[in-house]
Amino acid sequence: MTQPPVTQPPPAPRPPDEAGTTTVHLVRHGEVFNPEKILYGRLPNYRLSETGERQAKVVGEYLADLDVAAVVASPLLRAQQTAAPIAAAHGLPVLTDHRLIESRNFFEGRKFEASPRLLRDPKMWSVLRNPLKPSWGEPYTEIAERMLRAAEDWRDSHPGRQVVLVSHQLPVWTARRALEGRRLFHRPDRRQCALASVTSAVYRDGTLLRVDYAEPNGPTAAGSGSVGA
């Protein structure tokens, strides 16, 4: 059963030594209505559940007092719906950037559960041959490249202000690992990217100062409430 949202205090005002910084907030969308547990990936028309709509409202309230210049979302419905209350709080439209879309995945459209049974099916061997890449989907390097390019472009379009980019779990987590200089390969169950969470990259003059992370709706397990998040 999904726990009720846990509201965190809003981000603290910038200290004096951070005057003139630019912040890019990478927001993961809220919980999706997916009773059949399909790995939906880039499939259209997967919308937020009632819980997901509440989560989107909470993250909108969390970001409401910031100097947000633009709210941009993946073209997929669940990201657009999550972005809507964030944009409304600032009187802004929801803009769309295809670079924020979910990653490609061979298993899209199927009921999928990672288990040793996959390795016993010879038809899966070529798909699963290289988890470091990964061979079953969009390479981590390509995800990182498009996400960081989007973040940099929107950052440079609004210097000294803040922008919100609404995307999906794997793209957000891959971008964070790239920003922090960590290897891109990782265990999916160890991602720190809860539903409707906020990963914030703070820059000065194009140089990354730090990466912050917040869970306005409280923690959720990696992949919780969504499949192909």
Write out key terms for the chains shown.
six-stranded mixed sheet, 4 helices, Rossmann fold, 6 strands, globular, alpha/beta, 229 residues, 16% strand
List the helices and strands and how they pair.
Elements: E1 22-28, H1 50-62, E2 68-73, H2 77-89, E3 94-96, H3 140-157, E4 162-167, H4 169-179, E5 198-204, E6 207-214
Helix pairs in contact: 1-2, 3-4
Unreliable stretches covering 5 or more consecutive residues? 1-7
The count of β-strands is 6
Placed side by side, the strands forming the largest sheet appear as 3-2-4-1-5-6
Helix content: 10-25%
Would you list the SSEs in sequence order as H and E? EHEHEHEHEE
Q: What is the CATH superfamily?
A: Phosphoglycerate mutase-like
Q: What is the distance, rounded to the nearest whole angstrom, between the alpha carbons of the first and last residues?
A: 18 Å
- CATH topology (level 3) name: Rossmann fold
Please give the largest β-sheet. 6 strands, mixed
Shape: globular
Specify the structural class.
Answer: alpha/beta
Question: How many alpha or pi helices?
Answer: 4
Q: Approximately what portion of the residues adopt beta-strand conformation?
A: 15-25%
User: What CATH architecture do you see?
Assistant: 3-Layer(aba) Sandwich
Q: How much is the radius of gyration in Å?
A: 17 Å
| Overall CATH class | Alpha Beta
Domain count, please report it.
1
Pfam families: His_Phos_1
GO molecular function, one term: phosphatase activity
Protein name: Phosphoglycerate mutase
InterPro entries: His_Pase_superF_clade-1 (IPR013078), His_PPase_superfam (IPR029033), PGM_Phosphatase (IPR050275)
